[in-house]
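To close the chapter, one final illustration. This time we ask the reader to focus less on the individual chains and more on the assembly as a whole: which components sit near each other, and how the overall shape emerges from the parts.
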Amino acid sequence: MADDSHGQEYSRRSFVKTTGVSAAVGATALSGCLGGIAGSGGGTRTIGAAIPQTGELSEFGAHYERQSEFALSFVNEDSERVAMSYEDTQTSPNVGVTAAQKLVNQDGLPMLFAGLSSGVALAIARSVAIPNGTLMATGGTSSKISTLDDDDLVFRGSPPTQFQARALATLVSNEGVSSTAVVFINNDFGGAISEEFKSAYEQIGGTVTDMVGYESGKSSYRSQLNAATAGDPDGIVFIAYPKAFTVMAKQAFEMGIKEDVQYFANEAVKGADVSDNVDAQAINGMKGTQPSPPTNRDIYQEFIAANQEEYGREPIVWEAYYFDTTVLCALAAVAVDSYESGALKEAVYPLSRPEGTSYNYKQIGDAIGALENGEPINYDGVSGSVDLDDRGDVPGSYRQWEVVDGSFELGSFIDSQV
Amino acid sequence: MVSIIQVLFDGVVFGSIVLLGAVGLSLLYGIGNFANFAHGELLAVSAYVTYLLFVTVGLPFLLAAAVTVGLTALLGVGIDRGILQIHRDSGSLTKLLVTVGVAFVLRSLIRIVWASEPRSYRLPLEQGTQVLEGGIPLGITTFRYDLFMTTDSLLVVGLGGACAGATHLFLTRTKMGVAMRATAANRSLSQVTGIDTDVVARIAWALSAGLAAIGGIALAVSSGLLYPRMGFDILLLVFAAVILGGIGSPYGAMVGAYVIAIAQEASVLVPGVGARYRLAVAFVILFVVLLVKPTGIAGGSWS
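The assembled structure is written out below.
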């Protein structure tokens, strides 16, 4: 009896063991199989995003979130492949680095979108992405990002400032303004674009009378405005963010500067934050440049229409870049077998370039299918061809805009003279 | 060459706003012996409450501003009764940290109610009047004495002066003002002579918050911009003015506010020092004054 019962027990145990093991093996095999089908190790892959949900560029942080979610809605159409994890940078380099560290070190994410401003992007690139070997996309436009010693880890879907500064210099010169002061935000972005503007503008015969830096978060910019007009320039170029520009535009008007000089500005001031808060007469006639997607392309028009249907608003130019950048990141995440930054880095550059078959955003499902079959693809963006060069930059095109009756109106494309 | 007169005037305008913040901060420091880090948020909250009453509700601007000053004074009293009253005998550091907490709560409330995007009162814009124009050639450069003024800026200067004067009269001509000065000088001794120091603290809070409200509204009008950090961004300068004036002395704070603001604006006059260093210039002045007179300009004196 005892022996029998023991034997029975033994056999039951071994049965449980065997089934358990086989079930485990089966599950592994199955998941491996599914993994093979998905072209990945299975599961949802998370992209970290350290973006300004608050602070000076919070408006842009909201744009980024909207467009990244919109981009993922195409990527995740039939299954939950890629997700975003957001952290707030408060538009501050220090807070941004902490946010990125959380995403990289704590959450262990191999890919990051970080910084919509160059100051934050550079800080995160230097102290988080490059030391940890994390692949990083960014919305920052400083030329310093192009020249980072980053082992190809940092790339962006928005064109860098050196191209933008040349377009701005061309515009100022075309307007017949031969001397100008530059008032710039004293950070990586403002410093770089103002220097680039100066060299481009002087190259085509202009004179920069004064370069006046400012710090954000001040409630009076009269001393900067006094300094900018001291050299009696014909124009003032504002390389500024919306909040500070709002204050400057009001104070400059009160100081009688507006009627004496022609205003120019970079595209960051162009937005509801300025047009809602500044009296029209303080900014009417101001001109500027902005990176512009090729609006004559059908795919861009469709993107605009789709956005209007989804969110009830027309997206600004940056949203197309954010959208394309997210698509590139997501396609790279889907393309790699193991979700780690080395493989992602190898994957992301080729899928932007014209060697493979072209797919636009509405064909992302097909693009993912092609990637799973190991075929080379070329993502054709809504903002342009988004072909990443060796420095991780994309070429851009630029248009001019002008403030008419307090609102920003888009004008023609600019052929850069520099 | 930048007009020196213009720079001085701009300094006085900005100094008036700093003054409105600094006097209240200094009062509270004198009475309660703690630095109120929520003071910047009181400025911001009042600017937003005025926005609510003026833009959202549609009250006339001056009425909206007046109601806001009253409400903010009540908020100050509320903070005192609700949170700081139990800390009367706590150390300065405890009180300071409590006010830091209050600051975070208030700023978050602003973000919850009004979100982060900037706003403005959209008051009619007015171009300044040129009061002075011209220059005296001086060798290689010209001494310019042009001066632009706007009604806004004159109002801010007038308001700053009026509030400073009213505070002075209150402190010297009223029983409560005298009690306040006595409490600042020696709280225990004041209690012994029958002064209700709790009431004194509460009045000090009301006065401090009320002045902060005027400062906050003036700040929003003068800059044409409201955003949640607006108070915190100016707080550093307000503290600098208070310390420069001699910590805890409202009169010193008044002088300190003008000195710091004028130094800041005048930094553009110093060759080789760009406007981008203006905050640094203000603080260099602070260091120099404290090296010469470590107790600050008024040295904690209330008279």
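The first strand of chain B starts at residue 129 and ends at 132. Residues 4-121+150-292 of chain B form a domain with the ABC transporter involved in vitamin B12 uptake, BtuC fold (CATH 1.10.3470). With these observations in hand, you are ready for the problems at the end of the chapter.
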